[in-house]
Amino acid sequence: MSTCKITKSFVDKLVLPEKGQVFYRDSELKGFAVRVTTGGSKAFVLEKRINRKLKRITLGRYPEITVEMARKEALKYLGEIATGIDPIAKRQQAQAEQMTLWQVWQDYRRIKSYLKDKTYVQYEMYLNGELEDWKNKRLVDITKDMISTRHGRLLKSHSPSYANTAMRILSAIYKFAKDQYEDNNGLSLFPHNPVDRLGQIKAWAKEPRRQTVIKPKQFERWYKELQEMKFNTGAESHHVVADYLLFLLLTGLRKNEGATLTWSNVDLEEGTIYIPDTKNKEPLTLPLSDVLVGILNYRLRFKTNEYVFSSRKAKYLAHPEQALKHLCETSDIKFTFHDLRRTFITVAESLDISSYAIKRLVNHKNGSDVTEGYIINNHDRLRAPMQRITDFFKENCKINMDDYVSR
């Protein structure tokens, strides 16, 4: 780095380097310099040790900023540094404070691109819905009082679950900002999460856990109307959804786990299915009972693509809600997709199947149960419990195996 007095005429005469960049240090003001790049850029900088580390602050590009302006800016920064202020951190904080909720969300989505699509859809549903008036607010302008007021308002207009979810989404965005945006000293530019107020004042709403299941006395009627929907409504989607709903009931799978099951993950010779993408991120291999094998053999006759429960529009059964609504109306039994999973677990418990086997069948994590950690439940050991559960449904639903025999 060359040392000389930096003036307008000196900067005008500077020759561009053949490669990289060159610095010319001012002989009068220590740390003041001009940087010249091979691309033709000339910029004023200040180099100074801050917190024992040599830092470089860009003051501005020439000729947008004059030598005199740059020198005054350098003196201002030197004054701040002398009084213990880190001007780089100060500048970063000022820039961060201009970020809006929507801008941080865009960074969240870009950086956390590995999340499931439905997560992004849910976040934007709230950000474009009940939180829309906050989208263009600076993150630093959303206060604890605003959070508690909005949460209270949502509790009056929506369910406790809805209100809590809206706040959890905001909290997740703030936690992301806290971890993502740091100054040059590694300190968070967003250290405070205003959503913490709800925990501090114990304002989170209680969300009653759903307990709905299909009752044993309803099984026969439910299955009868399921078959009626499958063969007599004339809707192609109903034919697929009927098998899909029974499949969920007999496996305890979550809605999307069943809907996205591919033929490549079905082993009819081994009598298993493999679910690679589960809620708890732990892949699941399930043994197949006789009815499940029958359903899969039956669906194989109508194979159109790689999905077991296929759809012409979305390839897999992405939107079975209308068929479920139809079955609820015709059977006069109100249930959800997750109620089928809850019914499966309830029946398994009623058959005195061990809690360890049930947890493996429905892919619940072991938690802190030390004993369970020593028990190895492979799919062969789960085959008998799975068949017992199916046998219960066969008897109570009056399932006719002839309906699933390949012909």
TrEMBL record:
<dbReference type="InterPro" id="IPR050808">
    <property type="entry name" value="Phage_Integrase"/>
</dbReference>
<dbReference type="InterPro" id="IPR025166">
    <property type="entry name" value="Integrase_DNA_bind_dom"/>
</dbReference>
<feature type="domain" description="Tyr recombinase">
    <location>
        <begin position="206"/>
        <end position="387"/>
    </location>
</feature>
<dbReference type="InterPro" id="IPR002104">
    <property type="entry name" value="Integrase_catalytic"/>
</dbReference>
<dbReference type="GO" id="GO:0003677">
    <property type="term" value="F:DNA binding"/>
</dbReference>
<dbReference type="InterPro" id="IPR038488">
    <property type="entry name" value="Integrase_DNA-bd_sf"/>
</dbReference>
<dbReference type="Pfam" id="PF00589">
    <property type="entry name" value="Phage_integrase"/>
</dbReference>
<keyword id="KW-0233">DNA recombination</keyword>
<keyword id="KW-0229">DNA integration</keyword>
<dbReference type="InterPro" id="IPR011010">
    <property type="entry name" value="DNA_brk_join_enz"/>
</dbReference>
<dbReference type="GO" id="GO:0015074">
    <property type="term" value="P:DNA integration"/>
</dbReference>
<comment type="similarity">
    <text>Belongs to the 'phage' integrase family.</text>
</comment>
<dbReference type="GO" id="GO:0006310">
    <property type="term" value="P:DNA recombination"/>
</dbReference>
<protein>
    <submittedName>
        <fullName>Integrase family protein</fullName>
    </submittedName>
</protein>
<dbReference type="InterPro" id="IPR010998">
    <property type="entry name" value="Integrase_recombinase_N"/>
</dbReference>
<keyword id="KW-0238">DNA-binding</keyword>
<dbReference type="InterPro" id="IPR013762">
    <property type="entry name" value="Integrase-like_cat_sf"/>
</dbReference>
<dbReference type="Pfam" id="PF13356">
    <property type="entry name" value="Arm-DNA-bind_3"/>
</dbReference>
